[in-house]
């Protein structure tokens, strides 16, 4: 439902006579008539589009025990003093969606004792003082309020039965100070995205021994992880990313965390070997270690985590070969190993994995040819760029019918681009640039790159972890018991985000999340491709980036390129293209980058539409182009461009390769000298004559 509270009057008027109504749920769809519902105990109007100010009639509903007004578009001041007489109230949910609701808590001394309080995104700025008088809280959410000051440890002291505490996305500072006594009820603490500093309390694992979820990511913590954390045997989620922690992981502090299911240590300064044989994380499914300083080989301790679903060890200093046993994780769907010092080849076992959907081994020192035994039937994203792989592309790769992004750039791959590549009907982005591919461009590209990337929600969006679990907790107080397995799965409906680099506008752009829905691209630049540009490429109507530069392509620019209505970047530079720039290309209304420099093009340069925005740099190196864009009149053309173009090709046939000339001259010189010395060494007669000749020259 959308509108104001008053607009519900007609619907609710009929409810006015239901004076003993106890439960009213309008969620997913309060006017003055609400005041007659004096026995109402539960009121839920959450997740609507209600706007305006909160109705003052709620003040009269003093029998309320459960009040949920969250996730609407309310705005303006909302004094909690209007609930001062609601002595039976146990659950109050008032989270805002538009950051326009100003909850006022000053001079408020309630008569109720809450069990559940949610005031997320309510512009509080300070911790409400009335919480000093609350002692029965089990669930408290004060996130997204720009709260300042130290960690409110008194909340834990006052509410000994507190189970869930959300303080995320505030401005708390100072050290994380905990109570001196154990808190056995707290099982979810989220203090992420604040400004906490210093080290963690050494007795943290002792005081909060029953924690299931700990998230203190995106702060400024430093130093070591307390060894007492190993005492948290029930801990299933540990999120420490984006801090300044620094510790040698040779010390196995996690060995006691036998229930760990999710571990994120990314973006810190951890170092040493992580995968020691003592590591026994048998329940681990999500492991993120990227952007640290881990080094050494990948040890077999990781083998104990047989349930691994996602593994990210990218941007470290790991070395050695990729272990063949990494293909034994039967549930693994995402494996990120880029930006390390790994060497050797990609194991056959990994290239035959049946569940992998995302594999990235880019920017390592991998070498050798890609094995012909290639059967990644579930693979959707493959990144092998910037290694030293050689040989042809294996034909078996093209049986990965689900492949959506393929990046092989920056290797030493060679041979022709096989026609079988056109079997990849779902392919949205392909980068084969900076290799040694030769031959012609397959004309069957018209069969692929036709769709935008499908099912991007499988990988899109940021990793959203804790809010769904929070709702699971709320449900325990009024519904069934908490099912952690169900809640854990709900938290990870969107796995790790896919990030794709693709060159457009003369630079590499990063596409991720929902942006992948709109990016379709093909990059074959910096190879040794020959022949004409296939006119069939003009049928790729949804393509946004096309780069064929730095090859040996000849012929004319296909007129069919005028069909590329969505294209934004088109680079055909540094080839041997001839003829005119098709006038029909002015119909490309989204084109923002166009480069045909260093070809043999001729004739008038288009200057309408998007072409009026391009300067001389897009056309340099074409002697017979003319037009206002390059300040050259077409009437002053010296000779017929077609004839001159042919003449230029003939000239190219007679161009002297100076480097080869110098090497040939040097080799000939050395050969003559060595031959002369050999003759003098073998033939004594000529040797004597040589010395006589030298003596005669000296006497002169």
TrEMBL record:
Query: What residue ranges are annotated as transmembrane?
Result: 661-682
The family line of this record is: Belongs to the RLP family.
Q: Which SUPFAM superfamilies match?
A: L domain-like, RNI-like
Q: Name one GO cellular component term.
A: plasma membrane
Report the Gene3D superfamilies cross-referenced here.
Ribonuclease Inhibitor (3.80.10.10)
Name the UniProt record assigns to this protein: Leucine-rich repeat-containing N-terminal plant-type domain-containing protein
Pfam families in the cross-refs:
LRR_1, LRR_8
Query: Where does the UniProt annotation place the signal sequence?
Result: 1-21
Keywords (alphabetical) are: Cell membrane, Glycoprotein, Leucine-rich repeat, Membrane, Receptor, Repeat, Signal, Transmembrane, Transmembrane helix
- Domain of life where this protein originates: Eukaryota
Annotated organism of origin: Citrus sinensis (Sweet orange)
Q: Which coarse location class applies to the principal site listed for this UniProt protein?
A: membrane
Tagged with keyword Glycosyltransferase = no
Localization annotation:
Cell membrane
């Amino acid at each position: 439902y959308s509108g104001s509270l008053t607009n519900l009057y007609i619907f609710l008027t009929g409810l006015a006579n239901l004076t003993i109504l106890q439960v009213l749920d309008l969620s997913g769809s309060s006017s003055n008539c609400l005041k007659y519902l004096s026995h109402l105990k539960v009121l839920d109007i959450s997740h609507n589009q209600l706007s305006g100010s909160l109705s003052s009639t709620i003040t009269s509903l003093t029998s309320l025990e459960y009040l949920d007004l969250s996730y609407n578009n309310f705005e303006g001041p909302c004094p909690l003093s209007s609930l001062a007489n609601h002595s039976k109230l146990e659950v109050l949910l008032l989270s805002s969606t538009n950051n326009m609701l100003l909850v006022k808590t000053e001079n408020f001394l309630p008569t109720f004792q809450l069990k559940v309080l949610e005031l997320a995104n309510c512009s509080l700025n300070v911790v409400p003082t009335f919480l000093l008088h609350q002692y029965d809280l089990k669930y408290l959410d004060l996130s997204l309020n720009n709260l300042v000051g130290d960690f409110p440890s008194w909340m834990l002291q006052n509410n000994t039965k507190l189970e869930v505490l959300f303080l995320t996305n505030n401005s708390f500072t100072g050290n994380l100070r905990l109570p001196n006594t154990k808190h056995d009820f707290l099982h979810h603490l989220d203090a992420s995205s604040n400004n906490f500093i210093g080290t963690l309390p050494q007795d943290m694992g002792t005081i909060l021994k029953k924690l299931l979820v700990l998230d203190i990511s995106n702060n400024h913590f430093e130093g070591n992880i307390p060894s007492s954390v190993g005492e948290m045997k029930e801990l299933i989620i540990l999120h420490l990313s984006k801090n300044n922690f620094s510790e040698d992981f040779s010390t196995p502090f996690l060995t006691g965390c036998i229930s760990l299911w999710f571990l994120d240590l990314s973006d810190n300064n951890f170092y040493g070997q992580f995968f020691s044989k003592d590591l026994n994380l048998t329940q681990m499914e999500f492991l993120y270690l990227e952007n640290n300083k881990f080094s050494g080989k990948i040890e077999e301790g990781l083998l104990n985590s047989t349930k691994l679903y996602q593994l990210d060890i990218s941007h470290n200093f790991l070395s050695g070969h990729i272990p063949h046993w990494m293909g034994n994780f039967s549930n693994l769907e995402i494996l990120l190993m880029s930006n390390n010092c790994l060497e050797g080849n990609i194991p056959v076992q990994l290239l035959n994995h049946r569940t992998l959907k995302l594999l990235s081994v880019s920017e390592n020192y991998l070498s050798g040819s890609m094995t012909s035994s290639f059967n990644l039937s579930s693979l959707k994203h493959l990144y092998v760029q910037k290694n030293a792989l050689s040989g042809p592309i294996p034909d078996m790769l093209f049986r990965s019918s689900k492949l959506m992004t393929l990046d092989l750039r920056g290797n030493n791959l060679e041979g022709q681009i096989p026609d079988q590549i056109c079997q990849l009907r779902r392919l949205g982005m392909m980068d084969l640039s900076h290799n040694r591919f030769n031959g012609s461009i397959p004309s069957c590209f018209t069969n692929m790159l036709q769709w935008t990337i499908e099912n991007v929600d499988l990988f899109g969006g940021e990793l959203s972890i804790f809010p769904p679990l929070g709702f699971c907790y709320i449900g325990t107080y009024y519904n069934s018991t908490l099912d952690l397995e169900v809640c854990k799965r709900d938290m990870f409906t969107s796995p790790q985000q896919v990030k794709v680099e693709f060159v457009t506008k003369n630079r590499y752009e990063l596409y991720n999340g929902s942006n992948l829905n709109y990016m379709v691209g093909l990059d074959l630049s910096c190879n040794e491709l020959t022949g004409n540009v296939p006119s069939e490429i003009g049928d790729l109507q949804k393509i946004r980036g096309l780069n064929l530069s730095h090859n040996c392509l000849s012929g004319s620019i296909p007129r069919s390129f005028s069909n590329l209505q969505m294209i934004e970047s088109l680079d055909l530079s540094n080839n041997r293209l001839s003829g005119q720039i098709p006038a029909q290309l002015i119909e490309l209304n989204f084109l923002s980058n166009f480069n045909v420099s260093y070809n043999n093009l001729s004739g008038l340069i288009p200057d309408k539409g998007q072409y009026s925005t391009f300067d001389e740099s897009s056309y340099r190196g074409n002697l017979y182009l003319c037009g206002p864009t390059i300040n050259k009149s077409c009437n002053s053309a010296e000779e017929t461009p077609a004839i001159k173009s042919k003449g230029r090709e003939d000239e190219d046939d007679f161009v002297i390769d100076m480097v080869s000339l110098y090497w040939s001259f040097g080799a000939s010189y050395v050969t003559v000298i060595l031959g002369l010395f050999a003759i003098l060494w073998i033939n004594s007669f000529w040797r004597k004559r040589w010395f006589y000749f030298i003596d005669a020259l000296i006497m002169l």
